[in-house]
Amino acid sequence: MIQRTLNLKPHIFYLIATMLILSSCGSRKYTVKTDTKASKAADAMANLKSKPLYRFITDWTGVRYRLGGLDKNGIDCSGFAFLLEKEIYGKTLPRISRDQANVVRSKDVNNLQEGDLLFFSFGGNNVDHVGVYLNNGFFVHASTTRGVIVDDLTLPAYQKVLVKSGSIN
């Protein structure tokens, strides 16, 4: 009987040691960097005043870009702004970004409010891209390369080509 008890002690020791090691792995706390672009975009979404706007954006996020598109099979930037303003704010915009810029009352970028429009010129002097301002320097738009996405307006690539911002007249 004593011999049998002595033989079990190493097995019990190994069992307890294994359980401690495995349980320590399960209790490790993982932290998320809060200064990443994705976390800041998520914060911008979480801080939206309009819950219908939040639902609209999440419903369209990731839809691919398609010039002239106006549905979930593909949408362009002006079509996205057109639908968002109509469905969320009940405002009618022209269909083309250049024409949309003409019906917007200019506003300093530092005074923008949720739902205001941002116009960009990537190809020269004419407006050729539009986005919708959210908050804290973030906006949503239909990117030609990434589809519908929440993006950071403070990025130099956007700062260099921003030509107008404001609200619908």
From TrEMBL:
The chain crosses the membrane at residues 12-30. The keyword Membrane applies. SUPFAM superfamilies: Cysteine proteinases. PROSITE patterns: NLPC_P60 (PS51935), PROKAR_LIPOPROTEIN (PS51257). Residues 47-169 form the NlpC/P60 domain. The keyword Transmembrane helix applies. InterPro entries: Murein_DD/LD_carboxypeptidase (IPR052062), NLP_P60_dom (IPR000064), Papain-like_cys_pep_sf (IPR038765). It comes from the Bacteria. Keywords: Hydrolase, Membrane, Protease, Signal, Thiol protease, Transmembrane, Transmembrane helix. Pfam families: NLPC_P60. PANTHER family: ENDOPEPTIDASE NLPC-RELATED (PTHR47360:SF1), MUREIN DD-ENDOPEPTIDASE MEPS/MUREIN LD-CARBOXYPEPTIDASE (PTHR47360). Belongs to the peptidase C40 family. This is NlpC/P60 family protein. It comes from Pedobacter punctiformis.
